[in-house]
Design a protein that fits this description.
By secondary structure, the protein is an alpha/beta fold. The chain folds into 3 domains: about 210 residues, Jelly Rolls, CATH 2.60.120.260; about 300 residues, Alpha-Beta Barrel (TIM Barrel), CATH 3.20.20.80; about 70 residues, no CATH class. It is about 30% helix and about 20% strand. Strands 1, 2, 5, 7, 8, 9 and 11 form a 7-stranded antiparallel β-sheet that branches. Strands 18-17-16-23-22-21 form a 6-stranded parallel β-sheet. Helix 8 packs parallel to helix 13, helix 9 packs across helix 13 and helix 15 runs parallel beside helix 16. The longest helix has 30 residues. The protein is globular.
Length: about 675
């Protein structure tokens, strides 16, 4: 063991941080203390291996939801020797050996503390094949000691060295290790070994301008790019944009269409099933599949978020920018001369030639109406009618909610009703569907709320006397009128838990049934694709059961990369992976990203998409999203990730587009290879 390793080993001992203070200590020695977070584990020091740990996660079939799939142990340091060295390096690394006969997705996160303020890196995930050993690295940046720049703390990412969000303090530190599960229950045992904990890499190069606010601002240029960094693809003039448009048009014109496809993007050489003139779902052999209007097998290779402007949030940030125009639309107008039709046509041509056959949620309607790509719109996103106070959910007992659905079909989505290119509809996205919390919100809602009136009927049926309710809930209502008028929690949450959960499920059942009925009533030829459940493990299994009763396809967003086994116990309907993505460093985006460069990003994407095709339950997968988010965040929440296939200047990432094309050309052979 070298001096550095010895220092790390000695430093990572001792006291329990606030984040782990309530956790039971499962194992310790003179070097480490290991604490479980959100799940049970068994850990022991590896014999004869310095700084080695062997960890076993056991099945937890009895613990659904957030408890099971996100399994974490934490190594907690005692003194500052480890964290003092952080500024001299750029990453934390650990060697992980997968001892299982199946793929393991392993995650590392570094957390530091300054008083009551906590800073954490992104979750860095690595796919580790069965019976293999891989180094998992968590890059980081610390706050530069000379920096005088402090930015809006709502930013998800920030420039290296700036006192903002993910840039770490060199103080108390813990390292979280996690294993991700593709199921809502952890049904299998995971065993892995951790060795060679170390700091590694070069520290970020902090610009001296961090010490001079008058020189640092503005830091976003005319094209939406970070001024204080450079990279080969950086746009430096309007002429650059125009030249790139000409070059790309020539390249796309010389690119042939994807071979062996129907006009809808189905498998032309594959078997022919019953054709209805619209998309439908069916089972073929041992897997679910979409069937296109011509009766051909179809898998949705989709893209979300094709828009031609973005919400540049500039309130209290005006001094960040060289100008205050919308960067996305300005770049497109310079590059193509117009949004419609030039930029719209280019987006459609790109997607077709890259190999996509579907466009997903939050796309400009001009893309949907192009007659070149199948589509799956979000019928309602942030509709206001019947929104439950304090919740991202709706009172489906309210006639206003039913009316909002019908109105959406009659107005903005009227063009989709008889359109064979429309696969079906998502209704909303990532709703907060915890039944217990939902019941509690309804219990404290205004008396005029239709859902609360239904809650009263529900309770009166079970507790004819208010005294019975008060006794079970430890409440103090004078009568049911008092319950209806009350806007405060006047009950014991533990004792009311079962009733809140039961009525919460009633509300959720009503929501999915009303949405299903609206689709059947207004657009009977199209599919009801659900509400895009929150990413696992946040999705609630009971909610999934309810969705399964009413949806033609259950949709779920997931960024956890375990797609071969993505599923939910008891779900009998096909599944649409409605959001997934991979991001990597490059082109001036702040913060360390999960993958080092676009080449590595494309390699991971190829593996991930092949896993998607291998999952018999999946009928489509939609990437999030077409254009990378703004460097300064898409809105006040500061979400600023390079998710895209094109950057803020509309310049494609060629590593990703080439990989997508290759995957698309062989997509149906991979999914239905026995039928080649």
């Amino acid at each position: 063991m070298n001096l550095l390793q010895w220092g790390i080993a000695c430093g990572m001992t001792g006291c329990l941080l606030a984040a782990a203070s309530a956790a039971e200590l499962v194992w310790k020695n003179d070097e480490y203390r290991i604490y479980p977070k959100k799940n049970r584990c068994v850990a022991r020091k590896m014999s004869g291996v310095p700084s080695g740990l062997e960890v076993l996660f056991r099945p937890t079939q009895s613990r659904p939801g957030v408890e099971a799939p996100f399994m974490v142990v934490a190594i907690v340091q005692k003194d500052s020797r480890f964290s003092d060295r952080m500024a001299s390096y750029g990453a934390f690394a650990v060697d992980v050996e997968n001892c299982n006969d199946r793929t393991l997705v392993f995650q590392v996160r570094i957390v530091t503390h300054h008083g009551k303020v906590e800073r954490a890196t992104e979750n860095f995930r690595q796919i580790i094949p069965a019976r293999s050993k891989v180094t998992v690295t968590a890059p980081y940046a610390t706050v530069a000691p000379f920096s005088r720049i402090a930015l809006d703390p709502r930013l998800r990412l920030s420039p290296a060295g700036v006192d903002c969000n993910v840039n770490l303090f060199r103080e108390r530190l813990s390292v979280d290790f996690g294993v991700l599960s593709a199921s809502l229950y952890q049904e299998k045992e995971y065993k892995f070994k951790l060795t060679n904990f170390r700091l590694t890499g070069q520290p970020p190069q902090y610009t001296p301008l961090l010490a001079h606010p008058e020189k640092f601002f503005p830091f976003i240029d005319d094209f939406g790019q970070y001024i204080h960094a450079d990279w080969p693809e950086k746009v430096r003039s309007e002429a650059d944009l125009k030249a790139r448009a000409v070059e790309e048009r020539k390249a796309l014109a010389a690119t042939t269409p994807i071979p062996r496809r129907t006009r809808f993007g189905g498998w032309a050489d594959g078997p022919t099933l019953r054709a209805t003139g619209f998309f439908r779902v069916d089972r073929y052999r041992d897997r679910w599949t979409l069937v296109d209007p011509e009766g051909k097998l179809f898998f949705g290779m989709g893209m979300n978020g094709i828009r031609f402007r973005q919400n540049d949030y500039k309130k209290d940030r005006r001094h960040w920018f060289t100008h205050l125009e919308d960067h996305t639309s300005r770049n497109l107008k310079i590059k193509y001369g117009s949004i419609d039709p030039s930029a719209v046509d280019m987006a459609q041509e790109r997607l077709c030639k890259w190999g996509f056959n579907t466009v997903g949620g939050w796309c400009d309607k001009r893309v949907y109406r192009g007659g070149r790509l199948a589509y799956t719109p979000v019928l309602l996103d942030w509709s206001k009618p019947a929104l439950i106070p304090g919740r991202k959910f709706y009172d489906a007992f309210d006639p206003a909610f039913v009316q909002s659905l019908d109105d959406a079909f009659k107005t903005q989505w009227k063009f989709t009703i008889d359109d064979p290119w429309c696969i079906g509809y998502f209704i909303h996205n990532e709703l907060t569907l915890n039944p217990v919390e939902l019941g509690e919100h309804v219990a404290t809602a205004p008396a005029a709320m239709p859902g609360k009136k239904e809650f009263r009927k529900f309770l009166e049926k079970k507790y004819p006397s208010i005294r019975d309710l008060n006794r079970i809930w430890s409440a103090d209502y004078a009568d049911y009128d008092d319950f209806m008028s009350s806007r405060k929690i006047r009950f014991d949450k533990r004792k009311s838990h079962s009733d809140m959960a039961a009525f919460g499920r009633v509300m959720i059942d009503r929501y999915y049934r009303v949405c299903r009925d609206a689709v059947r009533r207004n657009a009977p030829n199209h599919l009801y694709l659900g509400s895009r459940l929150r990413p696992l493990p946040d999705a609630d299994l009971q909610v999934a059961y309810i969705a399964n009763q009413y949806c033609d396809v259950v949709s779920i967003n997931s960024y956890y990369l375990l797609y071969r086994d993505l599923g939910m116990p008891g779900i009998t309907k096909p599944i649409w992976l409605s959001e997934y993505s991979i991001r990597a460093d490059g082109r001036g985006y702040w913060g360390a990203q999960p993958y080092r460069d676009q080449k590595e990003r494309a390699e991971v994407f190829q593996q991930v998409f092949r896993d998607i095709l291998a999952n018999p339950a999946l009928v489509g997968a939609s990437w999030f999203c077409y254009r990378s988010q703004l460097v300064t965040g898409r809105d006040a929440r500061g979400e600023a990730y390079p998710f895209g296939f094109v950057d803020i200047t509309d310049t494609p990432y060629p590593e990703m587009t080439r990989t997508t094309r290759r995957l698309s050309e062989t997509m149906y052979d991979i999914r239905f290879r026995e039928e080649k």
